[in-house]
Amino acid sequence: MNLAKLRPSARLLPVLASLGVLILLYAGGCLMFENFGSLRVLINLFGDNAFLGVAAVGATFVILSGGIDLSVGAVVAFTGVLIASLIGHGQPPLLAIGLALGFGAGFGALMGALIHLYALPPFLVTLGGMFLARGLAFVVHPESLSIDHPFYGEFISQTLSVPVSRRLAIPFTAFALIAVVLAGTALARWSRFGRNVLALGSSESSARLMGVPIGSTKILVYTLGGFLSALGGVVATFYMQSGNPASFVGLELDAIAAAVIGGTLLRGGVGYIPGTLVGVLILGLIQTLVIFQGTLNSWWTRIAVGGLLFVFIVLQQLTSRRRDG
Amino acid sequence: MIVDLLLWPALAALLWVNRRRPLLWPLVALALLLLFNRLFTPGFFALEIRDGRLYGTLVDVLNQGSKVMLLALGMTLVIATGGVDLSVGATMAIAGAVMARLAGVSIPVALGGGLGVALLAGAWNGLLVSAFRIQPIIATLILMVAGRGVAQLVTDGQIINFEQPALVYLGNGSLLGLPFTLALVLGMFVLTALLVRRTALGLFIEAIGDNETAARFTGLPARPVKFLVYVFAGLCAGLAGLVAASNIKSADANHIGLYLELDAILAVVVGGTALTGGRFQLAGSLVGALLIQTLGTTLYARNVGADVATVPKAIVILAVCLLQSPVLRAKLAGLRRPAPAALRKEGAA
Prior knowledge:
The complex is a heterodimer of chains A (325) and B (349). Chain A is mainly α and 325 residues long. Chain A has 15 helices and 4 strands. In chain A, the strands form 2 sheets. A two-stranded antiparallel ribbon of chain A has the order 1-4. Chain B is 72% helix and 5% strand. In chain B, the strands form 3 sheets. Chain B has a two-stranded antiparallel ribbon with strand order 1-2. Chain B has a two-stranded antiparallel sheet with strand order 3-6. Chain B has a two-stranded antiparallel ribbon with strand order 4-5. Residues 344-349 of chain B have low confidence and may be disordered. The interface between A and B is large, with 47 and 49 residues.
């Protein structure tokens, strides 16, 4: 934290760089394709990537604390299929959503407790969590299940979305994404919990000596991660109107990539929640560009994301080395 | 019956020989799983000889497990240096894709191309970790994300089939009645063991994993060793990728090696090598890989769907983690005799 205050320029460089990439990508898209600059593309960019963004905010918190969460994609899929199944069995949607969020938080808390109480590597525990949640999703329902309920059909997609013009509306999911990013930013920067997380991520032993409650912070941060994964799953059900146990494989990688591109150091202690939003939007823009281009195949998305990851990781390495020297 | 007469005494002997070694616990788990199958899964131990070749569930376990065993060899050394390689699954896909693409040219070119590109992938990871000093999880994440895209680029998004007998033999052929892949695994294991146990390389690796700074101050070539370890993991992944492509006689960029990096890491950890680096157990990793494969085959034989089968796997991961947890071990030891206060404090850290 102190270092961030001393050298704000070096610290902010990755975020500024990713912001630059975002603007370049958008401007390039607008120059290359006629309709790229339309409001619809911009709105869809937020709406389509909302579930990733929400989950990525949770992943960012976990990474900030010096940990990692590999269970994100599986928890998102589990939440979706749980909600779809509960609604299919006649439960009210709000109850289903509440249960799903509770499950996500509890699941995260359980992983956090294992990591803290038994001094286990987060990588392995959340890997176990990933397999567990993925398998449980198939236990709940073995295949894709569509959600057929007026709450989903009309309330979410019409009542809660804000019309911009006659044929265009900002979907509820976009607002959810922005709300989560704002809340996450506030939590990380101005709350005691946020400062504890950053201290824990910078150096666990120093944090302990400073009197930071290591155990509760660690368990809470995984609880938050699980909760936001579940919330991402809820947002995904709004977007897809269904739950599928086989979906969102590898979403955790996208979430981690978004955090890294957004300037969060994977070693923990340094990062910005708004940066993660920028990272998510970059991933979304790359996908949109590939779709607009038409002839490029979808695997170029992965290569481009990998390339960007490389550039940003090297950039981080250079800026943090300058600090050391 | 003959299987029983051979297998159980052999297992018992193995357990006895390893009674004071770290290999004991993975072996016990494997023996328990086999015992469970002997009692409750009919036909699991049935073997028959057809056309001079052994068939049966046990042989399938060995053949199917060969990929994770190969990966686990490379992964053991990487983890021993305190690193991890997340990209081996993607490297498998690339190697398989290149082999399938070059299958029509000539067999040596196809094999060499597949292995060559895997070596390149390993060198890339090694470079990022040793020269750029990037944290291994992140460095290998890049290739994990981009690798499957590269593999699809190689195959042009298609599934490329091949029929060349030599390439098909690699994953399906038999040698002396046993799967050829078994010979491949054993060969690689002996080679690796000689390399790390008969030279100082193994000591170097353990020293670097234990405390890299101290190792460097002692004059060990920490960076070159780390580089080589990732190259070796790439080679192992390449071999596994060739076997995987040969198994299905085609290169499927989307599915070859999917999630196998996680299985490999799991095999290494189950085998008794800590994720924090240092001491490593090469044979333990092979037993760990066999354990995972036997678990998978058991579930399959008992009609548990592949989708739901991740639940028992998760339970195994968590159980193994807990068994190796310093805190839990201190607590268990405390049940017998109170652990010194200092130890407890250290464990909690």
